[in-house]
Design a protein that fits this description.
By secondary structure, this protein is an alpha+beta fold. It has helices at about 10-15, 30-35, 100-110, 125-135, 155-165, 170-180, and strands at about 20-25, 45-55, 65-80, 85-100, 115-120. Helix content is about 30%, strand content about 30%. Bound molecules: zinc ion (ZN).
Length: about 180
């Protein structure tokens, strides 16, 4: 009989040993910290995830526990230009290696390409997903072009002009063309 695995209470050793895989989805409303970032919007958006366990021998009969995680979701964040909601697609795949202690994890995380975490018999993958998304959020999410014209509330007219030009990709193209013709 195949063992059933629960993404919220994952027995990492068994999951890795079996080379098991969990594919699932969860509504955004189940992730409180992401809902805070989205100011309560997009609770119905579906987050897709795949997590795969992997046990890698490192000699002398010892095995290392690895997880491969892939996540896909659309987050409604706040556009930093017009302050309206902007849908930001978030997709990533990441590898995690598990070690026995907090100290070892801290020491090895520095010099490893993969993320190093502490092994646990009851690991919450959903919490890891939330952590990873929060760490990777864009600092200034923005619309490619804002739905409403931006009313610039600035006293300095030079600053206003610059902001307008920066927002208009054609202005940049025009500038490039001009330079090319010289
Ligand atoms: Zn905008």
């Amino acid at each position: 009989m195949t063992q059933e695995f629960d993404a919220r209470r994952l027995n990492l050793n068994a999951f890795a040993r079996d080379g098991a895989q969990l594919v699932g989805h969860e509504r955004l409303s189940h992730f409180q910290r992401l809902m805070d970032e989205a100011h309560g919007l997009g609770g119905e958006n579906v987050l897709q995830f795949t997590v795969r366990g992997d046990s890698r021998p490192i000699g002398s009969g010892t095995e290392q526990v690895w997880l491969q995680l892939a996540v896909e979701v659309v987050l409604p964040l706040t556009c930093q230009r017009c302050l309206a909601p902007v849908e930001i697609p978030v997709t990533f795949t990441r590898a995690f290696r598990f070690v026995a202690s907090e100290e070892q994890a801290a020491a090895e995380d520095e010099e490893s390409e993969e993320d190093v975490l502490v092994l646990s018999p009851s690991f919450n993958v959903m919490e890891l997903i939330e952590d990873e998304i929060l760490m990777g959020l864009p600092i200034a999410p923005m619309h490619g072009s804002c739905p409403e014209p931006v009313k610039l509330q600035v006293a300095d007219p030079d600053f206003a002009d610059e902001a307008e030009e920066a927002a208009n990709p054609f202005a940049v193209l025009l500038q490039l063309k001009k330079n090319g013709m010289r």
